[in-house]
Amino acid sequence: MANTDKDQRFAARIQSGIQTAEAWDDDPSLLAECRLMIPFSELMPELVSNENENNTGITDSPFESDKDYMYQGNVLFLKRLTVYFQKEMTWVNQPPCRNCKSTEHMKAQETRGPQSQEEHEGQANRVEVFECQACSSNNAEPVVTTFPRYNSVRKLLETKSGRCGEYANLFGLHCRAAGFETRYVSDWTDHVWVEVWCGSEWIMADGCEGIIQEPSIYEHGWGKKLNYVVAIQAGGGVADVTPRYTRKYNNPEFQERRRQVASSEAVSDQIIRRFHKRMIQNLPTKRKEELNRRQRIEEAQLDKWKNITEWSEAEKHGQGRISGSLEWRIQRNEVGTNENSMTKNKASSVALSVEQFYPYLTDRSVSIAVSPKPQAGILVSGANCDVGQPHCISAVVVDDARLGCILQSRSFPRWSDLAAFLQAVPLGRIVVLKGNTDEDAFPENLENQMGVLGGFYLPDEPSEGVLYIGRRISGGNPPDWTRCTTYKMKECSELLVEFCDSSRSETKLRAEPKRVPNWILGRLPESVMPLQTQLLATDAQKRVAFLSYAETNPSVLGYTTKNNCPVYLMNNSSFPFLETPGDWATFHFLPEILVPECNDAAADPTTNAPNFDVPLEENFFSVLLGPSLLLKTNGSETATLPILDALRHTRLIGLYFSAHWCPPCKKFTPMLIEAYEHLKASFVHHGFEIIFVSSDRSTAEFNQYYASMPWAAVPYDETRMRQQGISMQFGVRGIPAMVILDAISGQVVSSIEQARNEVSQGCSRGDTGIEATFHSWISRLPTESRELFDLLQISALEGAAEDATNSPSPMDAYLTRNAELANPWTKADGTPPLKNLKANMLPNERIDPPALVRGDDAKIVLEIVLKYVDNALLEPWNSKFRTFKMSNRIVDKATRIQGSVHLICSLGMLVTPTTEDFVVSIPLWADLDHLRASLTKALAESGRS
User: Listing from the earlier edge strand, what are the strands of the sheet with 383-384?
Assistant: First the structure.
C-alpha cells in the first residue's frame, strides 16, 4: 500500500520546484534587468570583439579556464557564465553580525517563519536567526542577526547571496536571461542546480561550483548517496533524470533509498507524469511535438545509463564540494575522498575524433601554420588540427607521400610521452608541435630522444611553449624549411610554410558513421538535386548526386547526411569531425590506399564485412543460459552448438520470452522475425542474435513454436530449469517480453520495459525504422565494448590487407617504421615522395576565399537573417527566436545559395550540427543591436553592388 505521506511530500517538492522555474519566465522586465547585468563582452571577448566596432580591445576573458578547450560556441559561453556567476555571488555560512560586522562568533539559534514586510515580499519561508556571542556578552540583550532564505528571484538579484538554493534559483534566471532553455534540477539529498538545452542535449551547470557537463561530481566527487534527481522546466514539463547522475541505479541499496522517498517506483513515476502532463497541456502543438521528440531521446539515454554500473575514467570528476565552509561540508559528507581527489583534472593523452583528411590544394600547395593560440593553433590548409588541451603539447603528423593527409593528432601532458610517440613515427614524416607542459623539469636524456626531429631544440623550461615544423629524420641536416621557436605565454608570432606538390593520389570516399563535420560549406545545390528529393533520397542516390557535383568542384572534400536530411557539403574548414549520438554518416575523400574495400562508401556491407570473433562474455551467458544453444543451420534444420560457437560474430543478444499458447506472442513474433531477418541480411557479421527463452508447457509445443523461428533457442530441458531465474534477473512480468544485451560485457542495452516497444515502433517505419532501432542499440553499448570492437575491426582490416598482398598493410604504416625503406627521402619504389617540395612563407589567406554572395542573392540571405534578428530583439531570452534548422523552408532559401554559409558566419551567426539537423543560430553572446546594424548596412551595400 502506498505511503501517502511520502508521496505527498514528494509531490510537494516538485510543486515547489515548478514555482521556482516558472518565476524565471513570469516577469519579462526581470529577465531584461538581469540581462543588462551579464557582461557579454567580457565573457566572449575573442568573438564579440570581432563583430563589434566599438569593442574595448579585450581579447582574453577574465572568466576563461584551462577547460575552455573542451567547449565551443554556446557551451563555452555557458561555462564562462557559470564561472562569472560563481564570482558574483556571496556564499553565506552565517551572516555577519549587524553590530560588529564579524562572522567569527555567530551561532545559530533558531529558524522561524517570515515576520517583516521585506521577508514576506522576498518569499522567505524560512528565516535563520544567529546570535553574536561576543556582542551579546557586552549587552543586556542578545545581539541577533537574521538570514532570510529568500525564494523571490527578484530579491536575490538584489542580495546576490545565499547557499545552493539561492545560487540555483538566481543562476537559473541568468541562464534564461542569456537565452538558454533552462531546467531547475532538484536533488532529494539537498542540493539544487540547473540544466540547459544546448544543441541537442541537456547539460548540467552548477553555479555553486562553477562547473558544467560533469554529472559524476555529486556521486563520485562529493560522495553523495543519491536517490531522486528531478528536472523541471517552465513550459517544458518534469522529468526524473536520476540515471544521468548515478551509476548505481540498479543497485539494491540505491533502490532502497528511492523507496524511502516515495512509496514505489510506479507511484513516483505517476506523480511526475501527472505534473508533466499538466505543464504541457496548453502548449502549441509544434512545441508539444518537439518536447515529445526530446523526451524520447532523453529517456533512451537515461535507460542506457540505468544499466551502466561504473563511471568511466573520462566521466569521473573527483573533486569534493568547494562551496560552503569545511565544517558544513564535512557535516553533509560532501568533501569527497582522497581516492576521488586523486582523479581530479588529471591530464591524459587525447586524440581528435578524426585523424585523417586529404585537404584541397590551393595552387597545388598545402599550407601548415602553427601559433600559440589556445585553440586552432595548428592549421593544415585551413583545417583545425589542434587538440588544444592546456599544459600539453599538441602533435600532428603529416604524410609526405600523400601530402596533407594527417595521420595523427594528439596532445601529450608530459615530454616523455611525446618523445616515446615520436620514436614510432616513420622516417620522413612531417611533424608539427605546439604547446608546453606544467612539469617541474625535463626528463633525463630528453634532448637525445627529441633528436629524431631535425632542427628541433628544447625551450629553457617545460612551461615555456614551443612551436615546430620539421621532419622525422635519422641523421644529416634538416630541410631548409624547418622552423622552430619557443614562446612565453602569447609573445610569439605564427610560423607559416607552404609545400608544393605536382601530383596527387587517386582518392575514394571513406565512410565515417556516427560522425559529423564541425562546420559545413552548404548543401548540395538545387540544380544537382532539389531539396525535397534530397530529403527522400536513399544513401546510394545521394552518393551518385554528390560525386557528379564533386567532379567539377574540387574544393568539396566530402559530405554528411542522414535520413530525411539534405546532403551537406564539406571543405577544409569542416575538420575535425565530431562524434554524434544521431544517425549521421560522413563521407570524405582519402587516398585509395587508406580506404579499405569494406570502408568504401559504395561497398556492400553484406559482402565486405571483416571476419573476426567478438569476445563473448562466455561465463556470464553460460551460467545464464546453459552450456549450449539450439541454432538453425540450414533452413529448418536445427543443431546444438556450444554457446561460444552459437553466438560467434554477435554484438547484440536479444532474449525473447514467449510461448506458443500466448495470443499477444502470436502477434508479436512475426514482427520480430521481420526485423531479425532484415538485420541479418543487412549486417551479416557482428550483428544481432535472438535467443528464444520458452514458456511453453511441453516439448511438443516448444518444437512446434520454435520451428517457425529463424533464431537460436535455449533447449527446452534447460529452459525448464532456468526460465524462472532468467525472468527474475531481468524483471520479466509477462510475455511476450524482450531484453537486449551487450555480447561483450553482458550489460543490458535495452530493458524489458523498452525493447519490445522499440521493435514494434521500428517495424512500423519499415526497413529504415528497423535499422534505426539497431543503430540506437549499438550506440548504447558500453564505451569499453565499442572501443574493443573498433580495435578488433582495425586489426581485421589490416590483417585482410596484409593477407591479400603478402606485404605489410598500408594501414600499419601510420606509426610504424618501415625497415625496408632504406632512404627516408624516397618511396618504397625508389621515387621521391614529392616531385617538387619546397617551403615558402605564406600570405595571411591560406585557403581559397569563399564564393562571394552579391546582388539579389546577398539581399535574399541578409533579409532572412535580419528577420530572425528582429524577432530575437523583441525577446532576446526566448530560445525559439535563436535557432533554426537548415532544412527549414525559410532558412533553406538562404543557405541553398552558394557562399551563403560563409556570409552568414561572417556576420556573427553559428552553423552547428545537432542529432536532428544542422542549424543556424544567433549566438547567445551576440550584441543584437550591433548585429542588426551590420545587417542593415550590408543590405544597403548589396543593393548598390
Answer: 383-384, 378-380, 365-370, 495-500
Which one of 442, 469, 500 terminates a domain? 500
- Measured CA to CA, the distance from residue 774 to residue 155 in angstroms comes to 51
On whether residue 777 sits in a domain, the answer given is yes
Nearest Cα neighbor of 468 from 493, 442, 450, 495 is 495
How many helices (H) and strands (E) are present in the chain, helices listed first?
A: 31, 38
- Identify the DSSP state of 153: H
**Domain with 395 in it:** 350-500
d(CA 793, CA 798): 9
Question: How far is 272 from 283, CA to CA, in rounded Å?
Answer: 18
Domain boundary among 152, 173, 199: 152
Q: How far is CA 577 from CA 376, 520, 521, 785, 904, in A?
A: 14, 11, 14, 22, 21
Query: Quick check: is 585 in a domain?
Result: yes
Alpha-carbon gap, residue 216 to 228, rounded angstroms: 15
Q: Are residues 208 and 340 in the same domain?
A: yes
Closest CA to 792 of 615, 584, 555, 579: 615
Q: What are phi and psi of 681, to 5 degrees?
A: -75, -35
Q: What is the pLDDT of residues 437-489, one digit of tens each?
A: 889 899 988 989 999 998 999 988 888 889 999 988 887 788 888 989 887 65
Condensed to tens digits (0 to 9), the pLDDT of residues 234-261 reads 999 999 999 999 999 988 899 999 999 9
For the annotated catalytic residues, the residue numbers are 164, 191, 206
Report field, pTM of the whole predicted structure over 0.85: no
Helix then strand then coil, in percent of the chain rounded to 5, is 40, 20, 40
Separation CA 495–CA 378 (nearest Å): 10
Q: Give the N- to C-terminal CA distance of the chain in Å, as an integer.
A: 77
